[in-house]
Amino acid sequence: MDEPVITAAGLRKRYGSAQALDGFDLAVARGSVLALLGPNGAGKTTAVEILATLRRPDAGSARVAGFDVAREPDRVRERIGLTGQHAAVDELLTGRANLVMFGRLNGLGAAAARRRADELLERFGLTGAARRRARGYSGGMRRRLDLAASLTRDPEVLFLDEPTTGLDPRSRNAVWDSVRELVGAGTTVLLTTQYLEEADRLADRVAVIDSGAVIAEGTAAQLKSRVGGDHVDVVTAEAADLPAVAGAAARAGGGEPQVHTEDLRVSVAVAGSARIALLTGIVRELDAAGLAVEDIGLRRPTLDDVFLGLTGRPGAPGALAVPGAPAASAHAAGEEVSA
Amino acid sequence: MTAAPHGGHRDAATPAASAPPAGGGLRRALDHGWVMTVRNLQHDVRAPAEVLLSLCVPLMMVLVFGYVFGAGMAHPGTGGPEGFRTFLMPGIFVMAMLYSVSATATGVAQDADKAVIGRFRSMPMASSALLTGRAAADMLRALLETGVLVGCGLLIGWNWLGTAGEALQAVGLLLLFRFAMTWVGIYLGLAVRDPSLVGLVVYPLAFPLGVLSTTFTPPQLMPAPLAVVAEWNPVSSVVNAARELFGNPGVGGGSWVAQHALPMAVLWPLAILAVCVPPAVARFRRLSR
């Protein structure tokens, strides 16, 4: 097998009293997508900043695209692209002037930089806005410009630090499509995210980071199986209905129904591809028993579940991507039922 | 894998490996410096209000001191109000160079403040380009400002009475002083870091330097301790030298520093550069830790 294109060994970084990275190890195979998944404050951004040569580790070492990030940062910089959480473009310049400037700084000549800028504007649907200042761009346009800026010289390795945080679903899909296109062309991508769904859709492998170290690594399917996979959740109006609902769910098959009295919920684990069968089965049983329920739906494990499953505690309190989690499960349920 | 060099020392010196690769280093530094110069000039073109406002300060001073207070401020060395305006203009040129510290410092603080610097640093960019591009763009802007102010001076009756060569030497001294002020601005911008605070820091420094000088009044008319400060003020040396080279009325004075205005107008900026450039570069390097 090829040597991994990104390796990190025992990275440590401390800011004042906060240990941002505490023995961070990672290996990413060439041409693959790895998602670094974790709550705010887990050390994702610090890890990316060290790998992208923006910060020096206190200890440990890392190699990216064949070069040591601390000893040969310029060699690494020639081979990487970085898109951070905040659009790193020059607000006062036009979209095109931004891309020309970054192309020149990336080693392109003046004519080549202009040509490349026009190509990228076209590819990211920004040609119409090319001569407007970046300051006036919408959030989605700005993120696309930012992504384009990290591609002025086809990077071997692309770092995406929470590339879709704060984007509307349409812009999010556009970013995902661009990432898939790049990976198709051979780029290795390391992306950080708080959304399990994003990791699931884009990544070949997922590394879960907590308190500055990787605590689990594998495919999304492997991780989810470790936390129990998909569930059908039935929410009742009255606590008194819970046993009857659990009985109906048990008759429909699937796993042993778990009754959560605190939120009036009965949860049934789904095995493999039987999700729709289980969902319709439960609906049928409830109907036959004449039970009215508040809500029923397929629920995918969230980052919170992954954390609970891996660490026995939720991620940093209040820091998890709360808006993403329920939206993702509702979305998944709707999609599955209409399929 | 061995531990990274400088493990545990966050402020350790930049290792030799981060120096530009041999051969292409200087070319790359010049090339990227030019890219950043163009970028900063594009900023000026895209936000012309800032350039115009920074020209307003010296123009206001011409109005206030040349016309409002002019008659009252004339002194034996200058003759009447018109003579005073001729005396004033070289001082106004230097004031414009002095107050430019604010524009430079604001630009640098804005750069240091923004996410875009992270992208610059993730690129194989000559890191000197951020500073050299700033200095070069500000010098080009200084040329424009000097042109406007000279034009304004000619309109109100100021002129140079020496040779064209001497007048060009005077402009050269003004630009040398501006170059020193650019580096003061780079240092302050990196030290303050907050663009909204820059003005609050720069004006209390620039105002006394501008006023406690030979710009408006001969030191002979000041109380003795203030006169010494005014004579040794770098601003005074540049103003006196410019007056001498332009052939405009000066403040005279028998002190050593007043007698050697020309060499002092070269030495002061060089001394300021020697004091400001190393810490500015050191602060800039620390940004990347």
Automatic annotation (TrEMBL), chain A:
<feature type="domain" description="ABC transporter">
    <location>
        <begin position="6"/>
        <end position="236"/>
    </location>
</feature>
<dbReference type="InterPro" id="IPR003439">
    <property type="entry name" value="ABC_transporter-like_ATP-bd"/>
</dbReference>
<keyword id="KW-0067">ATP-binding</keyword>
<dbReference type="InterPro" id="IPR005894">
    <property type="entry name" value="DrrA"/>
</dbReference>
<dbReference type="GO" id="GO:0005524">
    <property type="term" value="F:ATP binding"/>
</dbReference>
<keyword id="KW-0046">Antibiotic resistance</keyword>
<keyword id="KW-0547">Nucleotide-binding</keyword>
<dbReference type="InterPro" id="IPR017871">
    <property type="entry name" value="ABC_transporter-like_CS"/>
</dbReference>
<dbReference type="InterPro" id="IPR003593">
    <property type="entry name" value="AAA+_ATPase"/>
</dbReference>
<dbReference type="InterPro" id="IPR050763">
    <property type="entry name" value="ABC_transporter_ATP-binding"/>
</dbReference>
<comment type="similarity">
    <text>Belongs to the ABC transporter superfamily. Drug exporter-1 (DrugE1) (TC 3.A.1.105) family.</text>
</comment>
<keyword id="KW-0472">Membrane</keyword>
<keyword id="KW-1278">Translocase</keyword>
<dbReference type="Pfam" id="PF00005">
    <property type="entry name" value="ABC_tran"/>
</dbReference>
<dbReference type="InterPro" id="IPR027417">
    <property type="entry name" value="P-loop_NTPase"/>
</dbReference>
<protein>
    <submittedName>
        <fullName>ATP-binding cassette domain-containing protein</fullName>
    </submittedName>
</protein>
<keyword id="KW-1003">Cell membrane</keyword>
<keyword id="KW-0813">Transport</keyword>
UniProtKB/TrEMBL annotation, chain B:
<feature type="transmembrane region" description="Helical">
    <location>
        <begin position="265"/>
        <end position="284"/>
    </location>
</feature>
<dbReference type="InterPro" id="IPR047817">
    <property type="entry name" value="ABC2_TM_bact-type"/>
</dbReference>
<dbReference type="Pfam" id="PF01061">
    <property type="entry name" value="ABC2_membrane"/>
</dbReference>
<comment type="similarity">
    <text>Belongs to the ABC-2 integral membrane protein family.</text>
</comment>
<dbReference type="InterPro" id="IPR000412">
    <property type="entry name" value="ABC_2_transport"/>
</dbReference>
<feature type="transmembrane region" description="Helical">
    <location>
        <begin position="167"/>
        <end position="190"/>
    </location>
</feature>
<feature type="transmembrane region" description="Helical">
    <location>
        <begin position="197"/>
        <end position="216"/>
    </location>
</feature>
<keyword id="KW-0046">Antibiotic resistance</keyword>
<keyword id="KW-1003">Cell membrane</keyword>
<feature type="domain" description="ABC transmembrane type-2">
    <location>
        <begin position="49"/>
        <end position="287"/>
    </location>
</feature>
<feature type="transmembrane region" description="Helical">
    <location>
        <begin position="87"/>
        <end position="109"/>
    </location>
</feature>
<protein>
    <recommendedName>
        <fullName>Transport permease protein</fullName>
    </recommendedName>
</protein>
<keyword id="KW-0812">Transmembrane</keyword>
<feature type="transmembrane region" description="Helical">
    <location>
        <begin position="142"/>
        <end position="161"/>
    </location>
</feature>
<dbReference type="InterPro" id="IPR013525">
    <property type="entry name" value="ABC2_TM"/>
</dbReference>
<feature type="transmembrane region" description="Helical">
    <location>
        <begin position="51"/>
        <end position="75"/>
    </location>
</feature>
<feature type="region of interest" description="Disordered">
    <location>
        <begin position="1"/>
        <end position="24"/>
    </location>
</feature>
<dbReference type="InterPro" id="IPR051784">
    <property type="entry name" value="Nod_factor_ABC_transporter"/>
</dbReference>
<keyword id="KW-0472">Membrane</keyword>
<keyword id="KW-1133">Transmembrane helix</keyword>
<keyword id="KW-0813">Transport</keyword>
